Amino acid sequence: PALVPQVGTNLTDLRLPRKVTVRELGGCMGPIWPSYYSECSALLFVVDASNPAQVSSSCIQLLSVLSAAPLASVPVLVLFNKIDLPCYMSLVEMKSLFRMQDIVSCATQPITMLETSARDGTGLANVLQWLRATLGDP
């Protein structure tokens, strides 16, 4: 099945082992993201690693999120997704394009980066491991 960009908002509950609610907000929903920052305990920021044309806008959105006061100490996981596609950019390329070394050194929150494929599941175990380590026990 074809994967389409998230355009609305979805809620999903995970057990890590305690219950955690994941709120998914599409990139086009950027203007309303700040209304959810105060209830955020961890942030997963998903980037399409197969779309070089989107890198600059994704980077601007990431910088905006990282500079938001309510998220100043919220752990961040940046996911470079769609690594199953032949045209994807590697983690090294994405880190370079995003200037992640500069972003990480200036950010107030801890930032982790992973490669994933939502389609074939690559990297999702690492995402769950990060969520457990970050949110597992209160």
Description:
The protein is of the alpha/beta class and 138 residues long. The chain has a single domain, classed as Rossmann fold (3-Layer(aba) Sandwich), CATH 3.40.50.300. Helix content is 28%, strand content 22%. It contains 4 helices and 5 strands, in the order βββαβααβα. Strands 3-4-5 form a 3-stranded parallel sheet, sandwiched between helices. It has a two-stranded antiparallel sheet with strand order 1-2. Helix 1 links the parallel strand 3 and strand 4. The radius of gyration is 14 Å and the shape is globular. 14% of the residues are buried. The mean pLDDT is 89.
List the helices and strands and how they pair.
Blueprint: E1 9-15, E2 19-25, E3 43-48, H1 55-66, E4 76-81, H2 91-98, H3 100-106, E5 111-115, H4 124-135
Parallel strand pairs: 3-4, 4-5
Antiparallel strand pairs: 1-2
Organism: Cephalopterus ornatus (Amazonian umbrellabird)
Protein name: ARL16 protein
Keywords: GTP-binding, Nucleotide-binding
